[in-house]
Each structure stands twice: as C-alpha cells, then as structure tokens.
Model the fold of this input.
Amino acid sequence: MLLNEFLKEHRKVEQQQNKIENQEVTIAELKSTVAEQQKEMGSVIARLKEQSAQIQAVSARIEVSKPAPQVACLSAVVRPLPDEGGNKP
Done:
C-alpha cells in the first residue's frame, strides 16, 4: 500500500515538473516576443519623429510662401445714399 501511494505522488510530482517546464518555455517565448515588439516600437517611434519633423518643415515652408495680407486704401470719401422714400428723420 505504501508503495502505491509513493508511486501516485511520484507521478503527480512528474506531472508538475512537466507543467513547470512547459510554463518556462512559454515564458521564454513571451519574453522573446516582448523584446521583438519593443525593438519594433523603437523603429516606429523613430519614423514617427522623422515624419513629424518633415511635417513641421513643410508647414514652415507653406507659412513663408503665403502672401502678405494687403490693405485696401479708400481714396474717395464715402457719400451717404440719397433718401429714397422721402422720409426725413
């Protein structure tokens, strides 16, 4: 009876060991995936910064190329319109 109980427990321990090994493999794979994604994010951020700089440069060129506002000058004096209805205040 004692041997059967020992063998039962021993099988449980072996199953737990296998489960732990599988989890360790999964953890290693996940760490690798995270490292890869961090590297990719770094390059995405670098491209985003580059595009932002390009957008700012284009915006600055557009701002410089806009014509200056022109002010119209009235040389004649504005005359009031004649009273059409004959109503005088």
User: Anything to note?
Assistant: The radius of gyration is 41 Å.
